[in-house]
Amino acid sequence: MNQRLKIGVWLLAACTFIANGLFAQTLAERDSVKLLKAMRIVYGNSNFKMDFTRKEIDQANKEVVALRSSPIVVRLKTNRRQIEAYRNAGETALADKIELKTLKTNLNIISACIRLFNYNRIYFMDVDDKPRFVATDSLVFSNLLFEKDTAIYLPHDSVYYMDFGVLYGRDQTNEWKYKEYGNTTEGATVIAESAFVIRDAQDKQLVPPTPFYSIVLFQGGKKTKENLQNLTYDINLYGPNSNSVIRSDFQSANEYDFAISRMNSRLYRCFSLITNRPELENNPKLWLENNPNKYLYPLWINIEKKLLSIQEGQGGQFIKKY
Hints:
Elements: H1 2-47, H2 54-68, E1 72-76, H3 80-88, H4 92-116, E2 122-126, H5 130-136, E3 138-140, E4 151-153, E5 160-172, E6 184-199, E7 213-215, H6 225-228, H7 232-238, H8 244-250, H9 255-274, H10 284-289, H11 297-311, H12 315-321
Parallel strand pairs: 1-2, 1-5
Antiparallel strand pairs: 3-4, 5-6, 6-7
Helix pairs in contact: 1-9, 2-9, 3-4, 4-9, 4-11
């Protein structure tokens, strides 16, 4: 009798364990399907495509999570060769014009990223310094941030890059095989000539539906209150109060600001859904409180002063000074 009772208890325990396991598996599968549907909508709306495969969505989810814990190196173009070529040819005025335009673009990029990108840690590097970075794992900051050469150790294969420039389309590898549907390679078709684009450590453009790009829609390049839109929170939280000119400039936004803010918001929204952290979705105040780039705030003031110097017509003197 005792033996039968033991067997009965053992069978009951085994059945309970199996039932709980099946129930947990059912819940996990249900959550997985729910997440898949949610991400298909989010990714579809931002990419204007609703038929992403599960493989594509899973890969994008992994990339979004990996980005969160990896640094991004913002590469700034200098156009040094082009400028030097014009100077050597005696085209000094044209060389100065290109240099000033390049400088203003880079300052706008730095300003927008410091103020509005807080999804992960960012660094700024002149694109010309990439070979040294890859060879030595020593990242030299752009001299627009520091007057003296400042470098940190950073494994080059651990970073993502962000560039301002061309966004390329992708080509289907084999659209006739179902198993290869969704497999693409970076193509030569230009989708946009002015966009913030994230690339991996091997310099490959990330793959949709990952929110890795944000197109900059130029409307004259002027800062306006209309452009500010959802950036208003930024002013109230840490807007400077020591310089009325800078404070006034802070209360408007340009196309760079809006594009960076859009990319930051898309990454946070995806991350909040993937990791089931709804408190992070559309919560700019929380993003700023946990901003990994706070160390750059003091440098932002100097960047804005340099931009103001250009806007006030001191371009030539500014280039010679900085």
